[in-house]
Write a structure and sequence with these properties.
There is one protein chain. Helix 1 crosses helix 2, helix 2 packs across helix 3 and helix 3 packs across helix 4. The chain starts with 7 loop residues before the first helix and ends with a helix. It is built from 5 helices and 6 strands, in the order H-H-E-H-H-E-E-E-E-E-H. It is α+β, with helices and mostly antiparallel strands. The mean pLDDT is 90. The chain has a 3-stranded antiparallel beta sheet. The protein is globular and about 45 Å long.
């Protein structure tokens, strides 16, 4: 699911291809996620789905997001304890997290170089490296915009 701008029919087909049963609620949640590239919280997704659709519960949204993560349809980006975004861009990349505004911005994987990784514990393999750089606007920049 690298393309963004899916129709509901395309979302339905993508869910089927990923082995996810495409219930109407899952299609609606997928449509919100894949309508355009965005980093959305579960609460934002629930608000967008419920703005145009029959009520979808918080539990359904969280369960569906967990299922989508499990099937590789979205990435879960944990920026701080209790603050999670769901990213429809599942290609390898990293993020800037603006702690003052809450914005999450992609960093292309080629822009981050790791010189050396620690030796992995015995009987393990590296699954993924996910780097979140927490930044804030400089004080003088914030003063200009106030």
């Amino acid at each position: 699911m690298k393309e963004i701008g899916f129709s509901k029919q395309q979302v339905l087909e993508a869910l089927k291809s990923a082995g996810v049963n495409p219930t109407s609620q899952r299609v609606e949640i997928g449509y919100v996620l894949f309508a355009q590239h965005a980093h959305l919280s579960a609460e934002e997704i629930m608000q967008r789905v419920n703005a145009d659709y029959a009520i979808v519960s918080k539990a359904t949204v969280y369960n569906t997001l967990g299922l989508f993560v499990q099937h590789g349809l979205v990435r879960e980006v944990i920026v701080e304890p209790g603050k999670v975004f769901y990213d429809s861009n599942v290609a390898p990349h990293h993020h800037y997290y603006y702690v003052d505004s809450g914005d999450l911005i992609d960093i292309p994987v080629q822009q981050v170089r790791l010189a050396d990784l620690p030796q992995l514990p015995e009987d393990t393999e590296l699954e993924e490296i996910d780097i979140v750089l927490r930044v804030r606007k400089r004080k003088e920049t914030r003063a200009l915009h106030a």
